[in-house]
């Protein structure tokens, strides 16, 4: 299409932009209806977007795909990105099903297994393109998402409170009935209010930065690492692909046990430990300059990011219990913007320093890790203050 670098950059970023920003309203909408309807809407929009891209490939590519079709390409790319926004919807839907002490495990499993797709795609997609062509890769993507829509429609259910509300019970009766059946988390009564309520609670915003650092940072590195390995260390294409896919899969899968660690040890402690590991990895990749130590740094960053992502959503229902959907929308939406904002910063270091800028760019993660550790310390201090304010129960005469 003879696009400029700026046009290419915006084209690559547009699905991440829509997928990030739509997390905010759709995440809040969960508090109105439990999540199934907004999840399905986002998936269907994603199918339309991917199908549109596939149609453009089979009808226009390569002779007729000119710059005049660039706006249409952006439009279908933006629709395809809607599927990314299902993350915050699923966080809210899953969260209402589980008691507070199991939030870390439940959300870690949901997010950890769900986030393996970038790593799997990095390995599988080039093989499909090599054997069957670019159009086949989009056809496979359509088939996967359509199957996902069908399975989700058949198997997914909203938590008990939302099922009772759909049957016509009042909020009070539904809350009482669902509470007697074991549900512990309940929503505000409308989407806008839950967004406002979550935004008013200052604890939401440190969690946004923590998630920006580790999930937004994860998305940014998934897109950046292949270029980093090939350009800075002159690896082969497949070595760069394997290292990038390994990073993505490790960071995603470690999120599953990371949620359990956060449940047992406390989200704050796990967050500090994982962010410290991220800091060590960023220091290695910035200053080591050697291939082996940089691989060790990548592993540290992958583990640190994955575990901290689980810790954040373990802490979220604890700090914002009355607006989980709204808070997950803010955290998931603004946090994921790191995948849109960080790559240009990494590229700017290359512009400033030349090839060595590929290493110096990881200083961005040093700064983000330090700021996130400091804000986690603020959350811990606030929690201790609240615990000191709570009156200690006096023993009754009988127990004495």
From TrEMBL:
Domain Major facilitator superfamily (MFS) profile: 203-400
Family, similarity comment: Belongs to the major facilitator superfamily. Nitrate/nitrite porter (TC 2.A.1.8) family.
Coiled-coil stretches noted in the UniProt entry, renumbered to this chain: none
Cellular localisation: Membrane
GO cellular component terms given for this protein: membrane
Name of this protein: Putative major facilitator superfamily transporter
Principal subcellular localization: membrane
Stored Pfam families: MFS_1
Organism (species): Salinisphaera hydrothermalis (strain C41B8)
Taxonomic path: Bacteria, Pseudomonadati, Pseudomonadota, Gammaproteobacteria, Salinisphaerales
GO BP terms in the entry: nitrate assimilation
PROSITE patterns assigned: MFS
Segments traversing the membrane: 6-25, 37-57, 69-92, 104-129, 135-155, 207-226, 270-289, 323-342, 362-383
Topology versus the membrane: Multi-pass membrane protein
GO MF annotation: an example: nitrate transmembrane transporter activity
UniProt keyword list: Membrane, Nitrate assimilation, Transmembrane, Transmembrane helix
């Amino acid at each position: 299409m003879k696009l400029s670098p700026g046009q290419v950059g915006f084209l690559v970023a547009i699905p991440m932009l829509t997928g990030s920003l739509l997390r905010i309203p759709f995440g809040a909408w969960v508090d109105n209806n439990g999540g199934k309807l907004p999840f399905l809407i986002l998936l269907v929009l994603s199918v339309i977007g991917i199908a549109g891209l596939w149609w453009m490939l089979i009808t226009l590519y390569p002779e007729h795909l000119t710059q005049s079709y660039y706006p249409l390409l952006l439009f279908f790319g933006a629709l395809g990105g809607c599927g990314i926004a299902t993350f915050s919807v699923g966080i809210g839907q899953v969260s209402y099903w589980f008691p507070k002490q199991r939030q870390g495990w439940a959300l870690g499993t949901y997010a950890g297994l769900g986030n393996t797709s970038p790593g799997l795609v990095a390995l599988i997609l080039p093989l499909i393109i090599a054997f069957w062509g670019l159009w086949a890769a989009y056809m496979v993507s359509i088939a996967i998402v359509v199957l996902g829509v069908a399975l989700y429609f058949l198997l997914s259910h909203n938590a008990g409170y939302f099922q009772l509300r759909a049957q016509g019970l009042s909020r009070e009766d539904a809350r009482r009935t669902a509470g007697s059946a074991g549900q512990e988390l309940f929503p505000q009564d409308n989407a806008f209010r839950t967004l406002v309520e979550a935004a008013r609670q200052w604890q939401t915003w440190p969690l946004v930065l923590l998630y920006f650092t580790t999930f937004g940072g994860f998305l940014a590195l998934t897109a950046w690492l292949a270029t980093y390995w090939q350009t800075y260390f002159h690896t082969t294409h497949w070595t760069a692909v394997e290292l990038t896919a390994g990073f993505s899969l490790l960071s995603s899968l470690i999120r599953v046990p990371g949620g359990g660690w956060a449940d047992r040890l406390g989200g704050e402690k796990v967050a500090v430990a994982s962010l410290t590991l991220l800091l060590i990895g960023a220091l290695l990749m910035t200053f080591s300059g050697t291939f082996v130590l940089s691989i060790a740094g990548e592993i540290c960053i992958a583990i640190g990011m994955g575990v901290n992502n689980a810790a954040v959503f373990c802490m979220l229902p604890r700090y914002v219990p009355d607006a989980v959907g709204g808070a997950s929308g803010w955290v998931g939406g603004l946090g994921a913007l790191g995948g849109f904002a960080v790559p240009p910063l990494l590229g700017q270091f290359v512009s400033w320093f030349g090839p060595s800028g590929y290493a110096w760019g990881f200083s961005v993660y040093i700064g983000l890790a330090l700021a996130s550790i400091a804000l986690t310390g603020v959350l811990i201090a606030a929690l201790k203050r609240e615990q000191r304010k709570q009156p200690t129960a006096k023993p009754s005469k009988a127990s004495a």
